Amino acid sequence: MSEPIPLEALAQAVRAAFGATVRIVAAEPLAGDASTRRYVRLRLAGAAEPSTVIAMLLGADRLPLGSEEIGGVVGGDELPFVNVGRYLESSGLPSPAIHHRADTFLLLEDVGDTTLWAAASADAARVPVLFGAAVDLLVALQTAGARRPAPTCYAFRQRFDGRLARWELEHFVEHGIETRHARRLPAGERAALLAALAPLAEPFERATPVLAHRDFHAWNLHVQDGRLRILDFQDALLAPDAYDLASLLCDRTTPELIPPALEASLIERFARARAHAGEPVEAGFAERYRRCALQRALKVIGRFYYLERVKGKAGYLAYLPAVYGVARRMLRAEPALAPAAAQLIAWVPELGEERPA
C-alpha cells in the first residue's frame, strides 16, 4: 500500500509559495515511474495562477546516484532534480519551474499530461515535426553543456563511462537472463558472454563525452502549448553524443512511430544541427549510435526483469517485445557482435529470427 499523501504539509507549502489565501481543493495521484518517487497534481483555489501544481513526493532515491552505479556519491546533500534543474533553467532549457522545496517533496510547475509520445501518436502527420523539435532540443542541451560547463552541477561530475556501461551489461545478464531463467550462468559462460559484449562499452570509453539527460525519450518530454518541456532529468551526466539520440529514437515502442527512413533523416538533422552550432559530431557516429542503442536495449531488458521479478512492480515485462525488436535490429547491424549473437540468442531467443505473431 502506498504511503498517504501528506496533505497538511503540502497545504502549508502551497500557502508559502502562493499566498496565505491559497488552498488545495483536490489532490490527484498521477502515474509514477520506475523510481520510488510519486507524483500528485494539486488543484488550487484562491490564486489567479497557477491553478494547478505538481507535488513530487520523494522516496528513498532522493540523493545522487550511489556507489552501486557511479562508484560513490558525486554530489552533495542537494536534490539532483533541483541541482540539475537550476543548470537547465540558467541555460534557457525548458525544464519545469520549482515553486517550493521541502525535505520530502517539491512543488513543480504543471507542464500537463501530453507526452511527446501521446502527441505524436495522436497525429501521424506531426511525427516528423515533433521528433524534429526533440532532436533540436537535444542539440541545444549538448551545446549548452559544451559552452557552459558548470562544476557545481552534478551532471558534470559524473560520466557514463566504460565501467558503467559494463555494469549495465552485467545487470542485463544478471536479470535479463539469470533472473528470467531462475538460474545462475556457469562462471565461464558468464565471463565469455560479457567478453563478447565488450564492444558495446567502447563508445563510452572512446567518444568525447557531452552533457546527456540519460533518459531522453518520448515519455520524458511533454508538449505544452506547442513547446517541448524536459522532465525526469535528475540522472543527467556526461555520455557519448549518440546516447540520448538513440534513447529518443529507439526507446521501447518508439520505432512504431519512427520508420527507418525517418530515423535516418532525424540522425542527419542531429548532425547538421551540431555542425551549425559549431559542435560537429566526431567520426564513427553511426557505429556509436547502433552500439549505444543496443547497450541501452539490453540494459532495459535486464532492468524490466529486475523491476517485475525482483521489485514486484507489475507491468514492465509487457514492454519487452518492442525492446527485443530494437535489440534484434541493432544486433544484426553490428558485425563486431557476431561472437555474442549466438550466446545471446541461446538465452534470449527473442533476439534471434523474428517469429510470426
Total E-strand runs: 9
Structural class: alpha+beta
Order of helical and strand elements? HEEEHEEHHHHHEEEEHHHHH
Largest sheet: 5 strands, antiparallel
- C-alpha Rg (nearest Å): 21 Å
Structural description of this entry:
With 357 residues, this protein is an alpha+beta fold. It has a domain at 116-351: Aminoglycoside phosphotransferase (APH), C-terminal lobe (Aminoglycoside 3'-phosphotransferase, Chain: A, domain 2, Alpha-Beta Complex). It is built from twelve helices and nine strands. Helix 4 runs parallel beside helix 9 and helix 10 runs antiparallel to helix 11.
Summarize the structure.
Helices cover 45% and strands 12% of the residues.
Structure characteristics:
single chain; alpha+beta; 5-stranded antiparallel sheet; 12% strand
How does the SSE layout of this entry go?
Blueprint: H1 7-18, E1 23-29, E2 38-45, E3 52-57, H2 80-90, E4 98-101, E5 105-109, H3 116-122, H4 127-147, H5 162-181, H6 187-196, H7 202-206, E6 210-212, E7 221-224, E8 227-230, E9 237-239, H8 243-250, H9 260-276, H10 285-310, H11 320-332, H12 338-347
Antiparallel strand pairs: 1-2, 2-3, 3-5, 4-5, 6-9, 7-8
Helix pairs in contact: 4-8, 4-9, 5-10, 6-12, 8-10, 10-11
